[in-house]
Design a protein that fits this description.
Organism: Ramlibacter tataouinensis
Protein name: Candidate membrane protein
Distance between the termini: 8 Å
Transmembrane segments: 42-66, 72-94
Shape: rod-shaped
Keywords: Membrane, Transmembrane, Transmembrane helix
Structural class: mainly alpha
Length: 124
């Protein structure tokens, strides 16, 4: 016996396409809310990378100047500390967990459709 879903696929393909379009719209709607958080995390990781590189360069320059001058100056510590603070703040923002509620409606719809297909398959 042919599963009822194949009968619908052959006889009414527009229904299947409408259903798939609904899934795409639901996924896009839920992803748009999540996109802002992903962009924020990507910007934070970029700040960590660039800030870390700038810190290493400035710390190296400060070490060389400190060795050349043979004396301590507060600017040799403060200037590299500024990008280090940016790295720490960016790290804290980037490490925040993603919300657990991402794509819950899409998962619920997929589960409901799978249950419907199981029910239809058991009846045939």
């Amino acid at each position: 016996m042919v599963h009822p879903i194949f009968t619908v696929l052959v006889s009414r393909p527009e229904l299947v396409m409408d259903h798939i379009a609904g899934y795409a719209a639901l996924a896009q709607e839920e992803a748009s809310g999540l996109g802002v958080q992903v962009k924020r995390r990507a910007a934070a990781w970029g700040a960590v990378a660039i800030g870390g590189l700038v810190f290493l360069i400035l710390a190296g320059v400060a070490a060389m100047l400190g060795a050349l001058l043979h004396e301590f100056h507060w600017a040799l510590v403060v200037v590299p500390a500024i990008p280090l603070v940016i790295v720490v703040v960016g790290w804290m923002i980037a490490r925040q967990p993603m919300p657990a509620s991402a794509f819950t409606e899409l998962r619920a719809q997929l589960d409901a459709d799978a249950q419907t297909l199981r029910t239809i398959g058991a009846k045939s």
